[in-house]
Amino acid sequence: MTNIIYPTTNLLHTEQMVVSHGEGIYVYDKAGKQYLEGMAGLWCTSLGYGNKELIETSTQQMEKLTFSHMFGGKTHQPGMDLADKLAEMVPVTDAKIFFGNSGSDANDTHIKLLRYYFNAIGQPQKQKIITRERAYHGVTVAAGSLTSLPANLQHFDAPLDALGILRTDHPHYFSGHLPGESEAEFVTRITDNLEQLIIREGADTIAAFIAEPITGASGVIVPPEGYYQKVQEVLNRHGILFWTDEVITGFGRTGNDFGCTTMGIEKPDMMTFAKQLSSAYFPISASVIRGDIYEAMREQSNNVGVFGHGYTYSGHPVGCAIALKTMEIYQRDNIFSQAADTGAYLQQKLATLRQHPMVAEVRGKGLIAAVELCADAAASKNTKLGELTNIAAANCQANGLILRPVAGNSIAICPPLIITTAQIDELVDKLTLSLNQL
Ligand code: PMP
């Protein structure tokens, strides 16, 4: 037993894995056993472990300026350069960027930016946010209210009513379609539901719609063809902002620069980034908004004075320097197009598991995927499906492969972007073996 309260853990579980060190896409436990890190940590170590350039950048920045804040307009070169670089990369018009520490606090920031903005333009009632069933947007009190997974809401008296969170359907055709319903009919039904929700609540009370372009924690759900196009049409009709949470899907994960590109979402109004922003070498996040939203906020500050939101570590110089170097490596080494190729290979290899008797569905895009286990298989073994998923992940670990059991009775797969095709073979072989052992 240690004195740690473990995050996102069944607190009765005392079994621990002590991770000792990492190199490339592998980590090692205290006994020296090697594991292929098939989850890139928590969907984050895109450039793998022990990247010398990132370590050197971090050391140099630590030596030069260990800390400086951004309150009151103070800034530093890595912060300004990172903001410029991101503004150049993202599809948001005239992007302005607020830095934070985590995906959760970046989403909290967006909730506050929305309030500040709509107050600024004289629409203070436009505050509600539409999220989706099975969404994951973090665990702080505000972002946690946008999350829809029961474990993150129950027992915390969440969602917080004052936030005005509305929930609409999740676009998982496999689990959500009615008997005999086609994909196109499913999309029409759930986007009609979205529009009905907006009409019922009043568009003048709804600020934004938030979506992970492809979900992560709820089981890597890839929406059907045409879904986002219809969502965009509905939102445009009712003047509601489109906010993509790219904490997992940002930076080459789905076969393109951003998840919104892969899913055909044009020009989101707001985006959230963390994780692969620094390849997890430092906790840093970015809340990105349209330039004209920022301009309206500046007007508001004319009236109210200080924009009263900021974290001590907003724009930490070491985090900014590391993120900037991460972007340089992504672009210099063509990491995104390389990941698109290896991603296509991963999806093709995983497709063979569709025939496996333990598997109900295989889904994914690029270097993110999930294998959903089969209810009949669990029933035949007299066990719960969730338990079978945990056993499958434990088998993987015993076989030297780290994957993650996630919501939706699925095993998630999200290796570092630098994984090679030979290493993908190793990953899929070990996963197949672990499923066979079930
Ligand atoms: N949004 C999404 C889509 C996420 O997947 C996560 C974390 N997995 C978060 C937000 C929260 O990020 P963090 O854990 O850094 O607070």
TrEMBL record:
<dbReference type="InterPro" id="IPR049704">
    <property type="entry name" value="Aminotrans_3_PPA_site"/>
</dbReference>
<dbReference type="InterPro" id="IPR005814">
    <property type="entry name" value="Aminotrans_3"/>
</dbReference>
<protein>
    <submittedName>
        <fullName>Putrescine--pyruvate aminotransferase</fullName>
        <ecNumber>2.6.1.113</ecNumber>
    </submittedName>
</protein>
<dbReference type="GO" id="GO:0008483">
    <property type="term" value="F:transaminase activity"/>
</dbReference>
<comment type="similarity">
    <text>Belongs to the class-III pyridoxal-phosphate-dependent aminotransferase family.</text>
</comment>
<keyword id="KW-0032">Aminotransferase</keyword>
<dbReference type="Pfam" id="PF00202">
    <property type="entry name" value="Aminotran_3"/>
</dbReference>
<dbReference type="InterPro" id="IPR015424">
    <property type="entry name" value="PyrdxlP-dep_Trfase"/>
</dbReference>
<dbReference type="InterPro" id="IPR015422">
    <property type="entry name" value="PyrdxlP-dep_Trfase_small"/>
</dbReference>
<keyword id="KW-0663">Pyridoxal phosphate</keyword>
<keyword id="KW-0808">Transferase</keyword>
<dbReference type="InterPro" id="IPR015421">
    <property type="entry name" value="PyrdxlP-dep_Trfase_major"/>
</dbReference>
